[in-house]
Amino acid sequence: MLRVFGRALIALGGSPNLMQQQALEAIPNQIATVEREYDLEIETVRYAVCPRCNYIYEPQLSPASGTVTYPTACLNRSPLSSTPCQTPLLNCQGAPLKVYEYNPFLKWFATFVAQPGIQQYGRAFCDNVRNQPIAPVDKLHTWDGDIYRELRGSDGELFVTDDEQEGRFFFLLHADFFNPEGSTGRGKHHSLGVASLTCLNLPYHLRQDHANVYVSGFIRGPKEPSAVDAQHGHFLRPMVLDLQKAYSRGIRCHGAADPTTPTVPGPECTFRAMIGGACLDLKAICPVAGLLDINSHHVCTSCNVFHQESILRTDHESWEPADDDYYRKGMQKWKEAETLKEREIIEHYYGTRYSPLEMLEYFKFSTMIIAEPMHAMYHRVLHLYFREALRLVTLDSIPPRYASNISFYHDFTHPPRPSNHVEALPEQRPQCEEHLAYLEWSDLSDDDHLLRISRLEDWLMPTMQNDIRALDDVVKGHQLLSEKRPAIRSEEKELLKRLSALRWHSLVYICNDLWLAPLDSLTSVGISKSDLQKELMAHWLQEWVNSKFRWPHFTVHNRPPPAASWAPPPIHIINSGNYSHAELTDSERTIKMENIARQMGYESVVRVGHIHRFLRQPLDNEEQLEKNLERASRQALTYVCLDLNRMPGDGATDKDALIAQLIRWRSTKPTEPLLGPEIHSGDILKRIHSCIREVVVPSWLAKPPFETGLKRAGTLKVDNWRTLFSLYVPLALLSLWKETSPIRSDDYAEMQPVLDTSMHLCCASILMAKRTVPLERRELFLHHYTQHIKGLRQNFPGFGVPTHHVAFHVYDFIKLFGPVRNFWSFPGERLIGKLQKTPTNHIPGQFEITLLHSYAKGAGFRRWILRTNRQPELKHCHSLLERAYRVSYGSDVDDDSPRLTHSRKKIPADLARLVGSSDHRSISLHSHFKAQSGTYAVVGTRGLGNSHICVCLPGEIEWRASRIQYILERDGKTQFAIQHSKDFNFPGEDPFKCWWAGGFEAKLISPLFSESLVLIDDSCIVGHAARWGPTNGMTVAINLSQQADKHFVASTSQCNNVDNAKTLNTTSDLSYSIAQFIHALGRSLRDVGSSRLTGTNWICFPPPIRRTYLKKRSYCRKQSPRPRDGNEVELGKSKNDDISVITTCTANNSAAPTPVTKHFTNPVDPQVALKRAQEESSRLNLLIENLAKNLECSVCLEPAYQPYTLECGHLFCGGCLMLEQGQMVNINRDEFRCPMCQQATIRTPHPVFSVCHCVEAIAANNKDKIPTLLPFHWKILRPRPRPLAPRSAIPRSSD
């Protein structure tokens, strides 16, 4: 097509010449030619995949023919004792039916390290780790993580050892399944798997660049491989083998080429690589890591917490880490298991299946399988709390009240983890106690007795002893047989239905134990399901039902009763109120419980947690509780009785006696279910919708749907949940339920516990996402999340999911890997989003290969674009791409280097006066500024929220809300001219400021901005600010910065080096001057009018000060010496000598800033008193500075001597105004304009006597000589009238 276009273009000028003909012939005919020219194609390995068991077979090169061959049928055995799969692998043409195309890691790594700068980043990362042998407690960077100081190389030394000849790289594994057709609807339509690696040595913005992300291949759908059979590991095995080679043997390849000789390969170097961690969501942990998922009783892969009843534990400090050797042992046993039953036993005890990650000798499953915070915290904890706890799913005012399934909480001793007490293979354990015990009939013949016992012991018991559900059904069947005989037809049908619901093996066991016909006529030990139907056995048992005694003691018509030597005589449990119990000491109970824990099997340990649940449930009738407890084993009942110190007093340890003690203990507890609070969910959801619509946020912050919570809002993404609980939910709840809120609801008093629980969760999510996590912030996260879990137990009883426990370990993984953005799944999800947009033919078996090659080509092309020494045609292509798609192939916003856009040279008058420079040619203005903390813009540009920022000036503790008026660049330095928001005097405690220390930094401010401009550097900007005006005259400002708060740590120690005497004497030294200023200022305000301060044309700015008869800067420093540390700026001076008093004060600063750490301050501490005195000194100094600035002449910029004011409100010295009028009259003799705003005036300037008195008081206080007053004579001039438009310019009517 390009060649045709070229010929047509040349034809316009005639026949082509020789050069044009050569240019046309140089145009490639196919895109593949260009791909080969730039080496964009990758060499992959195609594995044949079994369509049934997903086992992969590597291609074999035939020495004779030189062709690639595969086995014709699958020979995999899973488990080992099973027969081979024997599924055909090839079609009639000899090609594989199913293919997995693998991108070799070693080849990709050679391309990766050959990029410019990669080796330097890798070595710098290792140097930073080596320079700090002890991991810092403040996690500010990726290399601050503890994991990089724990991982060892193949030689036993630290992996990042100082070796000049080798480079060391860490990678993070991410694996997930996604729908390649898009995720517009719910449900799985087509599932495709992908595994990727990102290099942790690189900075964050380069690490997530797809040119530096490795994709091993795509696992073909439409269904996922079986996680129960560990089939995912087949596809991960080639990548793991390459990683093992890169770790143990190393990779020798060429490094980056020298920029001066780009065509010459770089020197050969040796590199080693290893997996630093695996970032997997809660579903991918099971198939990829070879561990059971969190829905099993092995709820956690990082610690020893076991059982679903332990998910709301808060004793984080007592959790022991999981045993990695035990995980590896379980995986080896699972892999070598002969039968499926053995595998099931191993899964119960070890909590493992198999994963090829076990082949990596350095891999630690307890610390390197990461509890991914994106899914665990945002997608589960926040999501479920929003929908199920607060029930924000409807606009109805009060939904039905939340009813729980528990009546009380009790701190039971949690079930022990069975894997911690099993040394041998679990199949050698004893039988499951009473569950499979059988009766003894005296009227059976020898042959019948032998057949019955053989059928029980040789067939049914081995089949059922590890099947928990089958054992449960045996107990349920015995309970059904012990009930009263049905009296009516409906009761008979119900009994028949319940018996038919039992498992087939359980029904066979009960019928064989009772020796019912026709089992007595079947001579074989094993029975097939076709010979004996469940409905038939249920009918026999229904006819047999006895109503006199409880199992196993009963009478049978025309037969002698059976014997049960393993069961004591029957006891009427319900009426056993006289049972006494023995009191044991704590040491005795602990020793006995430890002994029982070492003896208990998996089923007994699971039953311990079930007993806890049964005892906490509402007690409708004791008979149902008795039936539930009968399902538990004697060991489990004994363990719980010891925990409650309710062992039978007569020393009996049979089940009946233990159950009687537990029922007696339960009768002393509440019986009614706990109720949740009555929450007006509709009002909360309406307030959240209002916040989403009204809050002004920067353009980079995507708002959730306006109808969040309702069905029509659709499915929210994870980032929407994060934004909701970081901004909108706290604003809505604080405005509704805080006592001092002006728009609070009527039920605010009852909702205080729910508000605290919700805000603890919001603060935990905010603190977790910070880009830097000091130790104090990490401890605060753990504190807030712990308090949230305790609040759940108090306010929402019975509400809990396994992810509530998993989210606790975010604290541990921050310690291991640094801030959460180093190990969460957002980059992996973005990669999936890009893959979903890749065009394919949508044919299974083909589009997976297309995706892999398209991604590799795109990454290769991007690597070419990023090179500084790229060819001219690539530079032109780069320019075309930026114009067509408005994309940048440079560094992202996360890059530390700031960037300016849309410059202009025209300098406004107010900014020119602020800068105070006569030569403005070196100053350029910009509309946008891209920095690490965000993209900032001036007022009036697209995206109003981009101009709202939080500013913390040197010496201040708390940020102030401001907006950017101008962005200027001068002498290579970027500065911002901003306007501060005016302070808001709220009567009472600020309702939005009470959770400031927890991470939600919000406060009430005035909706108006100060008229004065302040010039600051980008280092003073904390981040963007969100603004919400809930009422007229009041605005809430929220800090949206994800960076570390500059004053988070420093604020607690800022007063340590303060001079006590000078600080404490400040207030008394300044009291007289303050009184004079306030008195004089009050009179000046009455005389000048409100327009003097609030007029839109009046702008006050702090220019350089020239020392004259009033030393207006000296009186502050002489009377209130201010202690300084290295970070403070002296009043009257600036770090930039050209501009004074610009980065320290403004014209309307009247309130003292509140320190961030006020909630942690002891009011009796002397250091606190010193700190408050210092703050008061700073406040008074700033107040005097601001008051003095308001008295300045707009021309000479000194305190106005003989002050006069014009109609526009600007203040001038009489002499300055007379001089300006004379110059103006010489130019335009018929009008006079204000020297500042150029507004025409027709009135005579009038004096301001109150300001004159104020200046005189200042001069008298400083002992300055006041000059003699001079008379002034003003000439009244009229403004020039506007000329009328010429007659020809007047539009005429169409008539």
From TrEMBL:
Keywords (A to Z) from UniProt: Metal-binding, Zinc, Zinc-finger
SUPFAM superfamilies xref list: RING/U-box
InterPro entries: Znf-RING_euk, Znf_RING, Znf_RING/FYVE/PHD, Znf_RING_CS
Location of the RING-type domain: 1193-1238
Molecular function as annotated in GO: zinc ion binding
Family annotation (SMART domains): RING
Superkingdom of the organism of origin: Eukaryota
Protein known as: RING-type domain-containing protein
Organism, scientific name: Lentinula detonsa
Species classification: Eukaryota, Fungi, Dikarya, Basidiomycota, Agaricomycotina
